[in-house]
Amino acid sequence: GMNRDELAAILDKEGIETRPFFIPLHSLPPFREESRKRGEVLPVTDRLAGEGINLPTYNTITDDDVLRIAGTIRALCRNS
Q1: Which of 18, 26, 27, 78 is least enclosed, having the fewest CB within 10 Å?
Q2: Would you give the DSSP letter of residue 38?
């Protein structure tokens, strides 16, 4: 019921930091022109880059942190 950026904004308000999944290499300046020359079409890569989200991961994350993050997302899914 919401896109990645909407989810990220809601999680941010809950104190849960996120990041976009990744930037496809073929879209970065050092590789873009060569990718175009080869006629690359990477729809799955582009879709994942546009929709994917990284949730918090760090060496001191606790089980309680994981449960809070998952619980927040679960509640959002139930309410949408």
Answers
A1: 78
A2: T
